[in-house]
Amino acid sequence: MSVCTPLTPLCTPLMSHTCPSVPRLCPPVPHVLPPVPHSRPPHTPLVSPMPLSPRVTLQPSPHPAEHQHCRYNPLRDEWVLVSAHRVKRPWQGQLEEPPAEDVPRWDPANPLCPGATRANGEVNPHYEGTFVFPNDFPALQPDAPAPGDSDHPLFQAAAARGVCKVMCFHPWSDLTLPLMSLAEIRAVIDAWAELAAELGASYPWVQIFENKGAMMGCSNPHPHCQVWASSFLPNEARLEERTQRQYRDQHGVPMLLEYAEQEARRKERLVVENEDWLVVVPYWATWPFQTLLLPRRHVLRLQDLRDSERDSLASIMRRLLIKYDNLFRVSFPYSMGWHGAPTGPHLQEDCGHWQLHAHYYPPLLRSATIRKFMVGYEMLAQAQRDLTPEQAAERLRSLPEVHYKQRPQETS
């Protein structure tokens, strides 16, 4: 099946048994599902977070920051439990080690440094900007054999081929993106776009991602990211393909383009913005200070960005990441990545339901040493967060845009 054709919905749409008090939050659902309608009313979620009797009346909370409620994520077709009152509970659990502040600028033993020898024996060039090389321990290889045929529907396997690359942002190990210049960040963006176009010429999906900090599994402090190109659409891409196509088919506009326009107007979850981009804590955010980076113009892929949009992207990325670091005065850990329209065989197809965007998923909750754990209920039931997205956005928005390491030292 072509990825850019309608996919069978995973969940059956519900009838419009809406509760007059909160029609968009927790619509009551009959015990027996009615026949599937041909379409559902605008902005009606695909699923309900819980089965409720039609006789139950839900009262809206006058203070959502103090009372639990559920929020719908249309991009993932799932619900998030918001329990803001839980952030007040005392913490006696695990404390994380803050990131080291004494990273050497150059270390001959660091395989990502210029002139260093990597695990495969190759010596890095003395690069002065970005540097891209094949991952020495790739998760995907281009010539992997296909598995044999399955003998049962419960035991299926499929071919998985691709390439994995590493991209160093800068030759210095003691720098991160928020401490780099705008010109240096722009060079990173250009390299991203070039890789996306090069690998996307043949592979259906090119995933650019950065794991920053040991808390997010990064084994090397040197500023870098990874780029994996695959012969298949990964789960997250397949999910966003389905939900964005369904939304465009039902509402006539790309989901995230309309979402950016709504958030720009509402302001309450806005963190930073400029003429081409905006960053919000999504209405449906799962991680405490999760953000979504969106272009204002309809853009399908990184390589489609105009020259001016790449400049403004460098600016807004730097502003966001400085705020992240300033929140707890620490090099803020996160996993981030770009999602755009599929590539390879889908370049000639209608993918207009897609909108380019970047996800930032940071784990820290209360301080540089207390993180959010996705365990228990989150693994077995559904996602849950401990402060509202509006509270998180306000905290980030109020932070200065000068990095704490670059501000004048306070004197007593």
TrEMBL record:
Pathway: Carbohydrate metabolism; galactose metabolism. Its EC number is 2.7.7.12. Keywords: Carbohydrate metabolism, Galactose metabolism, Iron, Metal-binding, Nucleotidyltransferase, Transferase, Zinc. Fe cation binds at residues 240, 339, 357, 359. The keyword Metal-binding applies. It catalyses: alpha-D-galactose 1-phosphate + UDP-alpha-D-glucose = alpha-D-glucose 1-phosphate + UDP-alpha-D-galactose. Plays an important role in galactose metabolism. This is Galactose-1-phosphate uridylyltransferase. The lineage of its organism: Eukaryota, Metazoa, Chordata, Craniata, Vertebrata. The gene is GALT.
